[in-house]
Design goal:
Diaminopimelate Epimerase, Chain A, domain 1; twelve-stranded mixed β-sheet; 3 helices; disordered N terminus; cytoplasm; amino-acid biosynthesis; DAP_epimerase_AS; isomerase; lysine biosynthesis
Amino acid sequence: MTRAHAPAVPPVPFAKGHGTGNDFVILPDPDGALPLTPAAVAALCDRRFGIGGDGLLRVVRSAAHPDAAGHAAAAPWFMDYWNADGSHGETCGNGVRTFVRYLLDSGLAGWPADGPLPVATRAGVVAVRADGPDIAVDMGRPRHLGPAVATVPGHTLAGTVVDVGNPHLVCPLPPEVPLADLDLRPLPGYDPAVFPRGANVEFLAPAAPVPGADVAVRMRVYERGVGETLSCGSGACAVASVALAGAGRTDGVVAVDLPGGRLTMTLADGSCWMSGPAVIVATGTVPLPAAPLPA
């Protein structure tokens, strides 16, 4: 069937940005007035019929959104994060860094003189700071919740359940399973009783040593509600914590190489600071779809 344009409201401003290839449609909506729906989000994130992105970030004042009003005193801005399929996500590390890049570039916020910039998410308020030309966000200390397994075509892989404000299953690969050979086109299998809200599933392998890092790894990720992506910030945090544990450490610096680039994770003092580039690549206006496009 030929796909047709759905009815739309008047065009709205947008930006397109990414952090290490994890890309987002950004909708500035300070007063929370846009009639944003799951169908509209999915249409905007469609890579052929929309702008395209792994997710959507609505830039809204915390006081104007029911999911963040309780954080308004601590964090003026709320990252209303949506997955590409139109579902909500609790948080997104690359999303937060890209969100802050947009706040800075658009003049909606600047770096505070007395500490990090706070941003509200559905997982709580996170702290963001400059790291030279890059942006770093404190993802909080990952919590390891026990073992689980993931299945991909041809393999059943042992992993660790990790909570980074959103759910992860991190699977270190045995030496005989090359990272590049994993088939991540289908959703990896996992126990729905362990992950009733779904999970981001990460796979990691050792990498060559990196100066300044205690551990270096390569990873791939299947993101809940999206599919395989070039990068996942919360996933890199989960992977870094598992990699350090595998090296017999609790704290340290981990270089995480993803298909979209490198993120540097620093775990210490109850925090996991994730640092890397965040870039706004385009701005413009776009009709906001009022209904899903037909298949």
